[in-house]
TrEMBL record:
<protein>
    <submittedName>
        <fullName>DUF1203 domain-containing protein</fullName>
    </submittedName>
</protein>
<dbReference type="InterPro" id="IPR009593">
    <property type="entry name" value="DUF1203"/>
</dbReference>
<dbReference type="Pfam" id="PF06718">
    <property type="entry name" value="DUF1203"/>
</dbReference>
């Protein structure tokens, strides 16, 4: 199985960069990256030290419902290309572990799938989850702060 890591939606990212609201209805906060722990959810790379960045609330689901989680994410303040690479993106290689959860096509958590896994086991666990017919995608979150990192599907 080949995994596909999805960047945050480019239309949403462009809107927020242009001053539009985040998923809580607020403008993004402007900040400067300290160079550590500021992963951009669009290019899926770390925002370099001293670079401008945005901090905002994001809900990586099509509509609010019981199982949608909204939380803080970082974005490069300046334009960046959305991740289109293969393999595991840079932002998912620096923490010791990550929280993975499987979701159905209805965007609801499939119970029993949530698990904190070591970073080097992330691809194997995601692939195992995606083999289950009930799972449409896997979300990767920070195991310490629960922040959304990326979405994984099987590459067509």
């Amino acid at each position: 199985m080949t995994l596909h890591f999805h960047p945050y939606d480019s239309v949403f990212v462009a809107s927020v960069r242009a001053g539009g609201p985040d998923d809580c209805g607020n403008p993004a906060e402007h900040a400067v990256s300290d160079g550590g722990g500021n992963p951009c959810r669009h290019c899926l790379r770390h925002i370099p030290k001293g670079a401008p960045m945005l901090i905002l609330a994001a809900r990586p689901f099509p509509a609010p419902q019981t199982y949608t989680e909204t939380g803080p994410i970082f974005l490069c303040a300046d334009s960046c290309a959305p991740w289109s690479g293969t393999g595991v993106p840079e932002i998912l290689t620096t923490a010791p572990d990550y929280l993975l959860k499987g979701y159905g096509a209805d965007h609801r958590i499939v119970y029993g799938t949530g698990k904190v896994v070591p970073a080097d086991q992330l691809p194997a666990y995601a692939a195992r989850l995606l083999q289950a017919p009930r799972i449409a995608y896997v979300d990767v979150r920070s195991s310490r702060n629960n922040c959304f990192q990326a979405r994984i599907t099987e590459r067509p």
